[in-house]
Amino acid sequence: MAGVVAPSSATTIPHATCLGCGCACDDIEVAVSDGRIAGARRACALGASWFGDGHVPGVARVDGSDRPVDDALAAAAHALAGARRPLIYLAPGLSCEAQRAAVALADRLHAAIDSVSSATVLPSILAAQERGRAGATLGELRNRADVVVYWAVDPGVSYPRFRERYADLAGPPPQAAAGTRTVLAVDVGGAHGPPDAGHRFTVAPGDEVAVLTATAALLTGAPGSEAVAAGAAAAPAGGQACGAGTAPTSVWRQAEALVAVMRAGAYVAVVADSEPSDDRDPGRASALVSLSQALNAATRGALVSLRAGGNRSGADSVLTSQTGYPLAVDFTHGSPRYRPHDGEARARLLSGAVDRALVVGDAALVPAAVAAALAAVPVVTIGPRASEAPLGSRDGIVVDAGQAGVHEAGTALRMDDVPLPLRALVPGPPGVASLLRAILARVEAASHGTAVAAGGGVAR
Ligand code: SF4
User: Fold this and answer.
1) For the chain, which terminal residue's Cβ has fewer other Cβ atoms within 10 angstroms, N or C?
2) What separation in Å is there between the alpha carbon of 389 and the centre of ligand 1?
3) Which tens digit of pLDDT belongs to each residue from 123-139?
4) Is the pTM above the cut of 0.85?
5) 46 lines ligand 1 (CB under 6 A)
6) What is the crossing angle of helices 284-298 and 122-131, to 10°?
7) Which residues contact 312 (CB under 8 A, 6 or more apart)?
8) pLDDT in tens, 392-421
9) Is the distance from the beta carbon of residue 136 to the nearest atom of ligand 1 less than 6 Å?
């Protein structure tokens, strides 16, 4: 795919990383002209939009009045240090360095800290913690998967270069003996797989978890599963099996048809969207995890969970590395505690257990339900274009920051947790990591009765 075409006088910066979706394509050539992004070669339309032209506002406000950045940071430090039950919320669009700085600040403030993952991928994370998970890097998918099952997702919609870079459009898997790739689309209700898949299978939404569970049982040879499936196969057929695009009436018959394709593969990748926009059966995430494990009883296989953009996987990994838990961490009592069921940000806000919030990252990507819950408390918002998407009650503090990967260098994780460098491509406001470190320095200084010099700690 070709991005925006650059003027011939532009400087080209190679190997820029796009955070427009979880693919984190790191092969983008960005053209820079007069301090603006003039083109992003190889970026898809979503990626080109994510890079934009490199312009972001550089405003700082306290209670609605424009103020110097230092004043806003001092006000933020004072407000957060004075809060009794602060919450730090990690929106998408942060470098790992900024996420680490946010965790350090939460630790110092005895705050709760949560991320957008609580509102999106919580079922997948809990299922993996409870059952384990057979995963793979995207490189392994590209090189080894000779059967790719798209479970209710067409990556072309929200992950435009996924197939081109890592899966069935990348050519046959180099390390597979068969030298070909079989592509299977499983349509669940209105959530369809790729339209050009070689095999197509339809599952009613109400049967989804049952089909996944039956498929896993057949793959592992669970006692009785083969006999039940054989009985289903002998029953009068109400539809056709895998590949025909018509829904069979029997869950077991559907499972048998899926197993026939999967068992033929030496390495089966089940690709599913961890952050679907539509409502799914709450048991789906756990059933997919079980299926990926069962695959390894019959052949080799992995679950590939698609993640949206903005270094969301990075937030999970940074929180895990620094606290032991991937989301919904509470420092109220000093040491980190895990509150995935009763303490996620929205529930905490709605229960009145928050008296001040700090939102860092792209405020426009805070889930609507969380943004609505934030309306009841004063909020400090720090991120790219924060002044264009104010959150919380009126007496808030807003500091515009540079965009990670455009103005701020650092690190981000691809959806498979592979770390990639972020480059500073054009000049802009200070990044979130630098601003958070400056706030932490002010909080520390205030607790020790010392002062921080103007501009102290903010790298520009
Ligand atoms: S596929 Fe995703 S990461 Fe790659 S260029 Fe498009 S938006 Fe960016």
Assistant:
1) C
2) 24
3) 889 988 888 888 899 99
4) yes
5) yes
6) 40
7) 22, 92, 115, 116, 117, 120, 121, 275
8) 876 689 999 999 999 999 999 999 999 999
9) no
